[in-house]
Design a protein that fits this description.
This protein has helices spanning 6-33, 38-44; strands at 60-64, 72-77, 83-88. It has 2 helices and 3 strands. By secondary structure, the protein is α+β, with helices and mostly antiparallel strands. The chain starts with 5 loop residues before the first helix and ends in an 11-residue tail after the last strand. The chain is elongated. The chain has one domain (6-88). The protein binds zinc ion. The site of zinc ion (ZN) has 8 residues, from loops.
Length: 99
């Protein structure tokens, strides 16, 4: 059905699979960097305390932009996983005392 050798097909599938994963990761990080700061988020959604603008939950979770201890924090809804805003933490906590 095709003249392309099977190992070459495997190699190409692997290569394009890796490129696709990298592309999706890059898009995800771009979306995180484009998130509003906390003050802008509160003003935009007319909130006193941050809450999810999709489901209304105040149950939020945060993570670092690049790694767990990154001072640039990305906050998202713990219930529906919507990314909400970002903020800059004063300094990273001492490594090793977090579970
Ligand atoms: Zn939500």
């Amino acid at each position: 059905m095709t003249d392309i050798p099977f190992p070459i097909l495997i190699a190409f599938t692997f290569l394009f699979g890796c490129l696709f994963v990298l592309h999706m990761h890059r898009r995800h990080q771009d979306a995180q960097r484009a998130l509003p700061e906390l003050a802008d988020y509160l003003a935009t959604h007319n909130q006193q305390a941050p809450a999810c603008n999709r489901c209304g939950s105040a149950n939020l979770k945060e993570m670092g932009l690049h790694d767990a201890n990154d001072v640039r924090r990305i906050v998202s809804c713990a219930d529906c996983n919507r990314m909400l805003y970002q903020y800059q933490r004063e300094q990273a906590p001492e490594s090793g005392d977090e579970a």
